[in-house]
Write a structure and sequence with these properties.
Elements (H helix, E strand, L loop, with lengths): L1 H9 L2 E6 L10 H9 L2 E6 L10 H13 L4 E6 L6 H18 L1 E6 L9 H11 L1 H5 L1 E4 L4 H9 L25 E3 L15 E6 L7 E3 L11 E6 L6
Parallel strand pairs: 1-4, 1-5, 2-3, 2-4
Antiparallel strand pairs: 6-9, 7-8, 7-9
Bound molecules: S-adenosylmethionine.
The site of S-adenosylmethionine (SAM) has 10 residues, from loops.
Length: 235
């Protein structure tokens, strides 16, 4: 019995799919391929009765499935967005149950998953409940609302020596900061970037991609960026 359970878990796949800001044409090919590959798509809804009447995510997913000419089981995930642990527990449980049942599952989120999305609260719980499901998960990046807004306005988010700030308008507690550090000089010593929860990304998505879960000492390629994550308890 144990073996059967293990085999089922090892073949699982959980895609955390970024949907972009609303236009189906702003979905990535990776997102469409995830929809093709999965058996079920978990779609958040703010409606207690699990209706999708007001759900932008459902609209995008439906349009994508129509475009691909495929049908998938849609699993509603009640997401009241009250920032309560219990709600994330319930949402993670629906995803875990869906993985048990369908094996290959997508969960969708608006914009990009890295920006004010619930997915890392959920992935944290999934990791605690089932390490294999977590290891077999993949986050698919997407177009953020502010990248799309910049394109609509035909105005750059940052030019030359400007920097970009993203702020929560109604923070619940002290605001912590994640820094994105771009455009390094080749040969630079990274001491000047300070210390913290760094990741270094070199040649992302290219054949010679290197991702280092810390700060490299010296920059050797222009296509290098650093993320200095806000200090968090989780995620
Ligand atoms: C919970 S955050 C999600 C952000 C999203 N993950 C992203 O990458 O843009 C929701 C906020 O994103 C912004 N937002 C997301 N989609 C938008 C859209 N289609 N039009 C305008 N603002 C949008 C609004 O400020 C909204 O209050």
């Amino acid at each position: 019995m144990q073996n059967i359970t293990k085999k089922k878990t090892m073949n699982s796949k959980l895609y955390m799919v970024s949907l972009g800001p609303g236009d189906v044409e702003l979905l990535t090919l990776k997102a469409l391929n995830a929809f093709k590959d999965c058996e079920a798509i978990c779609v958040p809804t703010k409606s207690e009765n699990n209706s999708f009447d007001k759900s932008i995510s459902y609209k995008i997913v439906s349009e994508a499935l129509e475009l691909l000419n495929i049908q998938k089981t849609i699993v509603p995930v009640y997401s009241p967005m009250h920032f309560i642990e219990k709600d994330w527990d319930n949402e993670a449980k629906i995803i875990l149950d869906s993985l048990d049942k369908y094996k290959k599952v997508c969960f969708v989120t608006l914009g990009d998953a890295g920006v004010y999305s619930s997915i890392y609260y959920l992935l944290h719980r999934i990791k605690e409940a089932n390490e294999e499901y977590y290891l077999n998960s993949e986050v698919i990046a997407g177009v953020t609302s502010f990248s799309a807004a910049s394109a609509k306005a035909k105005k750059a988010l940052c030019l030359g020596d400007e920097q970009l700030i993203i702020k929560p308008i109604n923070p619940r507690k002290n605001v912590k900061t994640t820094e994105i550090l771009m455009r390094p000089k080749i040969g630079m010593d990274t001491k000047e970037l300070g210390e913290g929860d760094f990741y270094t990304f070199e040649n992302l998505y290219l054949s010679n991609e290197i991702i280092t879960p810390s700060k490299i000492d010296k920059v050797t390629r222009y296509m290098t960026l650093f993320l200095k994550f806000a200090q968090r308890d989780q995620g």
